[in-house]
Amino acid sequence: MFVPRHADAGVQKGRGTAWAMEHRFSSENRSDFDDGWGTLQQAAQAETLAPATQLIEENVRGILSGNDSPDIGFDLSINPYRGCEHGCIYCYARPSHSYLNLSPGLDFETRIVAKVNAAEKLREALSARGYTPGQLNIGSVTDAYQPAERRLRITRSLIEVLSEAQHPFSVITKSSLIERDIDLIGPMAAQRLAAVYVSLTTLDPALARALEPRAAAPHRRLRTIETLARAGIPVGVSVSPVIPFLNEPELEKVLQAARDAGASSAFSIVLRLPWEVNPLFQQWLEQHVPERAARIMARVREMRGGKDNDARFGTRMTGQGLWAELLRQRLHKACQRLGLSRRRVELDLSRFRRPAAWAGQGQLF
């Protein structure tokens, strides 16, 4: 059982990190200064107050992103939100907030950008004469069913457009909110047009709460797998990221639990520490598992050619070396024993029909 350490300064309940770290594009670097008036103590007390989440509405010029990575099994992606309130400390998307001049630390999980015209832009893209359907994934960078979706319903509006166009898609999420959209996803799945992948990092609720503070609890994600599977929707499980000596010992148990809940396929990705994720994650280790921090990072470096991170195609998702190979074998053997497919669900591209470019406009006249 994981026992989190909260005694260290800078740990905020419900947040993955309290560190509003500078990003790599920052033009100014600030440091604390004691002016003799107790300002350092006041600042430390202020940091213990959990900041509220801010939603920033954005009208985007486009919503479809192409994929040129051979490591990823889809051609196109849609991410309705920038930043993610789930606050997963290991999230490889954190550095993307740097491009918004926001911190990959606390800002990433408290300042959420919502692409409010996403459905309109998707309709425009699918209606274009030159558009050719491809394998499309929703939520590959940040979770499309994070808390903001309850009110904004941007992801649902995207699925409505995809349903009209009979365009296949997959979703990856940690959220049980996806159950709300079974009425749309279920009929599409029956035509081989939809699949869902649920990310399940650990079965230990204490570890999940520390690693992924605002994501659904492990038992709730298992219930979501069961609910989706009973609705006839193919469900895969992503045991990602695999973190040595933290959630790695659970690999087989997580796969077993997901299979028992109804998952039919599985994959995993080893921990990645690009850019600002590296210092954020190492700080988290020192705060929560200081007795294991050095051992975990030593094993990470062993899989990354002696470095903290290796961004090369072909190895960035799997790692390299003896320990990475052992992980691959464990995953393969467990999936074989449990009857879990290692292949992604094949979706049918042939049903695509171009949607009306200006749906609803005729009602104005």
TrEMBL record:
Keyword rRNA-binding listed: no
One of the record's GO molecular function terms: catalytic activity
Domain Radical SAM core, chain residue ranges per copy: 68-307
Positions in coiled-coil regions: none
InterPro entries: Elp3/MiaA/NifB-like_rSAM, MJ0683-like, rSAM, rSAM_sf
Alphabetical list of Pfam families matching this protein: Radical_SAM
Statement: the UniProt record of this protein carries the keyword Iron: yes
Keywords tagged on the record: Iron, Iron-sulfur, Metal-binding
Protein name (database record): PA0069 family radical SAM protein
Organism the protein comes from: Rubrivivax rivuli
